[in-house]
């Protein structure tokens, strides 16, 4: 700067410029730079401190949320009715009675496809310019996934503000007779608080479990209801026959409120419902799998009815009989952890993870069909299929693994190895990955039980096909943690560079979420 100043002065004939002027000028520039640097560093440091404070506040909220988690055994039968009726008291404490009654709600129950149907519905209605609120469960990575505004999960800042507003009010009024709401009940109440305050135009509400006594069923007058495919799940709570399960799901129906369902077994159709027409399979869907056409057809019926009820009409496209914004909504829908393909973060060319949170017998078959189709379409180089599996102990693996394995074999796909691991997330803690990753389940007895079942299936097939079973014992592995299993996969891939591993991760949405956390860490 000094040189340039001096040369410019000489060129203009101002040779009398003093050295003092030059020095003064340079000092001014240096001082200005010092001030700028100090302000910049202070701002950057302040931003870091704010982010740390925000993260701490969020973690404190998650810790408080974890305190509301109880074992499922506490919910069964006699406690359900009592806990459900407490919800009306909680709404009164939160001053939400009037606000909830004003919400325009689409309520969806069912065994399989609830989340997908809700996601399709939200995507369609957002295309009409409506401000949407979507409440689903469970979450895979972050609890905020359960609350979406216009398709985007709620921000940490808003979540924390709404959380403490509800938590403190309920805590203040809690007692031995009226305890704090349990985990899912609190989340449902929080959803009502968020969506009413944010003044959404439509709430798409997914039932958590069952229907009749589910926390979401505290609503009195939804615009329209839907029931997705029914199957055998949560039988210890809902009943051991399809008729009993269907009766629990039908508990969301309200007098005078239109209700739709997909084709169901005769045993489940004790209530006279409108059965939706199948969607044309030429329609492109944002969610993969043939079974998604059933979920999409229900979403179309729900959205059509909702739009009619609020006075919005739209013309059908001549090509496939759907309005253009329906076509766009169906094709742009996105739901993490369902029929989802993710390359490994370290070895993207060698390992591909095929994620599907299927955890019922029927969804296992749908998952197997989808995976087999993907294997056939993507086998451009030599590949091996590996199963990464876990299911919760409340499920019967004898109903899951045989159907998965048989369906894949029928489709011409056979797993080279089956790997069984415990989930890393734990039932009684909602928190950050840094906390969860230290809590690897000490007991892997359940995993060895899954391994024995898989080996027995393999031995049975070997006998019927006259194959030698000398290698069958090596076709399944148990690891004490998910990171160890992923390390083994990566080591195997590095040793077999000409082979691409196609890894199906299924049996539990918790397992799918744990894997996503791990590979995206």
TrEMBL record:
Family matches, as InterPro entries: Folylpolyglutamate_synth (IPR001645), Folylpolyglutamate_synth_CS (IPR018109), Folylpolyglutamate_synth_euk (IPR023600), Mur-like_cat_sf (IPR036565), Mur_ligase_C_dom_sf (IPR036615)
Record-listed E.C. numbers: 6.3.2.17
Protein name: tetrahydrofolate synthase
Family note: Belongs to the folylpolyglutamate synthase family.
Domain of life: Eukaryota
Keywords: ATP-binding, Ligase, Magnesium, Metal-binding, Nucleotide-binding, One-carbon metabolism
NCBIfam families from the UniProt entry: folC (TIGR01499)
Pathway where it operates: Cofactor biosynthesis; tetrahydrofolylpolyglutamate biosynthesis
Catalysed reaction, written as an equation: (6S)-5,6,7,8-tetrahydrofolyl-(gamma-L-Glu)(n) + L-glutamate + ATP = (6S)-5,6,7,8-tetrahydrofolyl-(gamma-L-Glu)(n+1) + ADP + phosphate + H(+)
